UniProtKB/TrEMBL annotation:
Keywords: 4Fe-4S, Iron, Iron-sulfur, Metal-binding. This is Ferredoxin. It comes from Ruminococcus gauvreauii. PROSITE patterns: 4FE4S_FER_1, 4FE4S_FER_2. It comes from the Bacteria.
Length: 369
């Protein structure tokens, strides 16, 4: 397959060119103006950040993308879908409150925020997945599928189940309705290492499905109720709850690729990733750890697969931040993400996306100065 073009700019600024201006120059150089936006609804998919987390992308970046879409005649809106787990984004009302709290409003971004799968996460479109190995019909937020054009604006960071969260994670998992997220997660469910469990019950408070009970000061998980969202893993202060096997993570990664296929097929799409504040885990946590590497820059491409590979390569080329979680791990190998989350293999999602025709692993990196 022919190498895809991925455009990159660093984060150096001058009195005449700030980061927003550099982002605008980058995405125009990458060819966003070749899309016909004339009066077409444009979904800009991003993560508004769980309240308490400060690593999410600031609304200023969203405004830059919104302004360009408007300049080109489009009708943009910012969007994300509701979460499975308890938190600040589990329904549209809480989700909007969280977005506003983190600065995403029509006044700061220049467009409205629409929660893609509606009030309770049940507004969904059933979308066939051509070539799907695990998913034949994806459940995607209806508002996202109603859009004529799709843009992903991604915060590139680590992830405890997928290795990293980039374009494909933002698209595939992020655009799934509540039922869609259940479908993606249910191949792998967490388990309790009893010798480490102290019965603090923080896991029960973070389970939206009453799947965890405490007996004799030990937690147990009912897999008939568990949806595999993994929220309990992040909540446990003793690291007593662990993710499922490698095979289950592999299946999750493949399903994310298949959901991405459903979202992107049949309409123009464009992708932007910012490799900044690279926390070891997802922005879905109500906190963020120290960035594991120095900030790198901004990337853009029509190819989400090549974009993810280019960003991963850029991260792996960086030195480790002293005192970070990565610094405390066995990071002697070439891959920072597997050092942080050893039971993940992000290449599974990439390879499956290539197989589905979503893009190429081969890329030509073009610097925009």
């Amino acid at each position: 397959m022919e190498a895809s073009k991925v455009y990159y700019t660093n984060l150096r600024t001058t009195m005449k060119s700030n980061r927003q201006q550099k982002l605008a120059k980058l995405i125009k150089a990458a060819g966003i103006e070749n899309i016909n936006f004339d009066r077409r609804y444009t979904a800009i998919k991003m993560h508004f950040g769980e309240p308490g987390n400060l690593a999410y992308l600031r609304p200023n970046y969203a405004k830059t993308v919104v302004d360009i879409v408007r300049e080109l005649g489009g009708r943009p809106f910012l969007t994300d879908c509701n979460t499975l787990y308890i938190g600040g984004r589990k329904n549209a009302l809480d989700h909007l409150n969280s977005a506003y709290e983190n600065g995403f409003s029509p006044f700061s971004t220049g467009c409205h925020v629409i929660i893609g799968d509606g009030l309770k996460g049940t507004d969904e479109a059933l979308v066939p997945v051509d070539g799907g190995e695990h998913v034949k019909e994806a459940k995607i937020g209806q508002a996202i599928m109603d859009a004529d054009i799709f843009i992903s604006l991604n915060h590139f960071k680590g992830h405890e189940f997928t290795g990293f969260g980039g374009a494909l994670k933002n698209i595939g998992m992020g655009c799934g309705s509540r039922a869609g997220k259940m479908e993606m997660h249910n191949a792998g469910k967490p388990f309790v290492k009893e010798r480490k469990c102290v019965g603090c019950a923080l896991c029960t408070k973070n389970c939206a499905h009453d799947a965890i009970t405490i007996t004799d000061k030990k937690a147990s998980i009912d897999h008939n109720k568990c949806v595999g969202c993994g929220r309990c893993i992040g909540a446990c202060p003793q690291d007593a709850i662990r993710e499922a096997s490698d095979e289950s993570n592999d299946i999750l990664n493949k399903k994310i690729a298949e959901y991405s296929k459903a979202v992107l097929d049949g309409r123009p799409h464009f992708h932007i990733s910012l490799v900044i504040d690279v926390a070891p885990f997802c922005d879905c946590h109500p906190d963020n750890d120290l960035s594991v590497i120095p900030d790198v820059g901004m990337f853009a491409s029509f190819d989400p697969v090549a974009l993810d590979v280019a960003c991963a390569d850029a991260v792996n080329a960086q030195p480790v931040t002293p005192g970070s979680l990565l610094d405390e791990s066995d990071h002697e190998g070439h891959d920072h993400f597997s050092a942080i989350s050893p039971e993940t293999n992000w290449m599974v999602c990439i390879d499956h996306a290539v197989k589905l025709g979503l893009g190429s692993k081969e890329y030509e990196l073009i610097e925009v100065k």
